[in-house]
Specification:
Order of helices and strands: HHHHHHHHHHHHHHHH
Oligomer: single chain
Largest sheet: none
Number of strands: 0
Distance between the termini: 20 Å
Structural class: mainly alpha
Strand content: under 5%
Number of helices: 16
Shape: globular
Radius of gyration: 21 Å
Number of domains: 1
């Protein structure tokens, strides 16, 4: 499948996923209110961190090593199952540590809710890894189809569980149930339909761990940039402020739909590409075109954001509009690094992303701790924007040093780009 078609399929899939996420967030906001939604946000944030850490970077390793040699599928599948089993063993001590110390950043999470979150962890690790196997095989249609089915199922189950019990625990149970269904489906897909027999391979496991842990270090640190502010907001402010801030984050991050779609495809292409010059030229062009599109959409979101929040989520979430305005500059600029970081990872330079992540997370921690007690969720938004900008500037620097590209090549839209876009649109219209 060609790049343009793959990106368009992924983009429209992401657009649908965004719509479903908005519906999901709307249900949580309208039914549970700021406090209940805040509890769910903190729980899911904790879930995403634990899942990322225990996943050992195998989601990225699957794409990278299948891009190199698709014949390793049986071994990669078996190695992934082993990682899920090993990760599950760590969950028991995590539970008792939280019960013993009662960390303030998890304040509001009950014992039952913690158990539900920890039960969901191994299922999400498996689901994420196997979905990325499809990405490594460059089965883009199937990759997007599973993501969409996953989101629709989650939405249906969320509505169903909240009809039974209107509380955050019901929302968490819906995620556990939905993830379990997707995992069973994927086991059937690979082991029955495709007749994949899981095999363990120690040398390949060592290589996957080596690459995965490098990628994971950057991912964990970068996740701190994405979501550490949620824990700090919960530490300093009432938990309903977490729910309000989450609205700003969800709306702001919709801008990544364009670059996220491209970055998803760039990674496996870069992993398997043998023509560096053409790959760099291609990456430069899609980055600057995407950035121009993101700027336009960010202006639209800034203009209609407050009205949309009040009408869609309710007046109780109106203060999210201010945080959204502070988030937009950083999210807009960070869209550039979305693509460039995928390129660097795809050519094996994941350590460059780690360096960028380390510096930007330091910015996140310092400014969040300083600003949140002073100006609340607006401070969290400012700190996040600053960390995104720092990460992007460093990523551009590393990318330029490796490829010898100029910053103008990846930021500024060219007349030839506009001409090419017009030609593509015209050809599509003529076909109709």
């Amino acid at each position: 499948m060609g790049f343009t078609k793959s990106v368009m399929i992924t983009f429209f899939s992401n657009l649908l996923l965004f719509f479903l996420s908005i519906v999901n967030t709307t249900i949580l906001s309208r039914v549970l209110g700021p406090e209940g939604k805040g509890i769910v946000d903190v729980a899911f944030n904790f879930l995403s961190f634990i899942t990322l850490i225990l996943g050992m970077g195998f989601a990225a390793s699957n794409v990278y090593f299948l891009g190199k040699k698709k014949e390793n599928l049986n071994k990669i599948f078996g190695n992934n199952i082993l990682i899920v089993i090993l990760g599950s063993l760590v969950l028991v001590p995590i539970y008792f540590i939280q019960i013993r110390w009662q960390f303030k950043f998890l304040e509001g999470i009950t014992n039952l809710q913690l158990i539900i979150v920890l039960m969901t962890v191994p299922l999400i690790i498996f689901k994420s890894s196997i979905i990325n196997v499809l990405l490594g095989l460059q089965e883009i249609v199937e990759y997007n189809r599973i993501n969409i089915v996953d989101k629709i199922l989650s939405l249906i189950l969320l509505a169903g569980f909240l009809l039974i019990a209107v509380n955050p625990t019901a929302a968490m149970l819906s995620i556990l149930a939905g993830t379990a269904v997707i995992c069973v489906w994927q086991l059937y897909n690979f082991m029955i339909q495709r007749r994949i027999s899981p095999r363990l391979d120690s040398p390949l496991m060592k290589s996957m761990l080596g690459y995965g842990l490098k990628a994971q270090a950057g991912n964990i640190i970068q996740r701190l940039n994405y979501r550490l502010d949620v824990f700090i907001v919960n530490y300093y402010l009432p938990i309903e402020q977490v729910g309000i801030y989450g609205i700003a984050v969800v709306l702001g991050e919709t801008l990544w739909g364009v670059t996220g779609s491209i970055a998803t495809i760039v990674f496996p292409i870069a992993s398997s590409s043998t023509n560096k010059q053409e790959l760099v030229k291609f990456t430069n062009q899609v980055t600057r075109v995407s950035f121009s599109i993101i700027i336009i959409f960010s202006i639209i979101i800034a203009l209609v954001g407050k009205t949309f929040i009040i009408l869609w989520f309710g007046p109780a979430f109106a203060s999210a509009a201010g945080a959204l305005l502070w988030l937009l500059p950083g999210i807009c600029i960070f869209s550039v690094s979305n693509i460039l970081a995928s390129y660097l990872a795809g050519v094996g330079l994941v350590e460059k992303n780690i360096y960028s992540s380390i510096v930007s997370v330091i910015v996140t921690v310092i400014f969040n701790i300083y600003l949140i007690p002073k100006i609340g969720i607006n401070g969290a938004a400012i700190a996040t924007s600053l960390s995104y900008i720092v990460f992007t500037l460093m990523t551009i620097w590393f990318y330029n040093r490796y490829t010898q590209a100029r910053w103008q090549d990846i930021i500024l839209l060219k007349r030839s780009d506009i001409t090419q876009i017009r030609a593509v649109i015209a050809s599509k219209l003529n076909k109709k």
